[in-house]
Design brief:
Radius of gyration: 13 Å
Number of helices: 2
Helix content: 10-25%
Strand content: 35-45%
Order of helices and strands: EEEHEHEEEEE
Distance between the termini: 18 Å
Number of strands: 9
Shape: globular
């Protein structure tokens, strides 16, 4: 589930990272950020989609301040697939890599899964 993004800090607008999460008891829980796995073209397309569904405030229950800084928030409608190695002690996805958008999965059905 994508709830926001951060742009690259370059002169050209590019996607820097996606802020991802999952639902637990109806609340969107922050699971970390993913900053790899897409081409420049796909990143710009995803960023444009997120801008169209943007919102002023975070959809997550809580996001650590360093990750919330400069974040652009979006309504949690886009679902993405992410591979990662394990869950960290603070319940974040370790070494996440974007694998693609999931149009076949409803956003509200995204739940925490075990690492592969």
């Amino acid at each position: 589930m994508i709830g926001g993004y951060r742009g690259e800090t370059s002169a050209r607008p590019n996607l820097g990272s996606l802020l991802i999460g999952y639902y637990n008891h109806g609340k969107l829980i922050y699971a970390g950020s993913v900053g790899t796995g897409w081409s420049v073209r796909l990143g710009r397309s995803i960023m444009a989609s997120l801008q169209r569904i943007g919102k002023e405030t975070s959809p997550f229950v809580a996001v650590p301040r360093p990750y919330a800084k400069d974040a652009k928030w979006a309504k949690p409608h886009l679902v993405c697939e992410v591979d990662f190695t394990q869950w960290t002690r603070d319940d974040r996805a370790r070494r996440p890599a974007f694998k693609g958008l999931r149009e076949d999965k409803p956003a509200r059905s995204v739940r925490r899964e075990a690492a592969k």
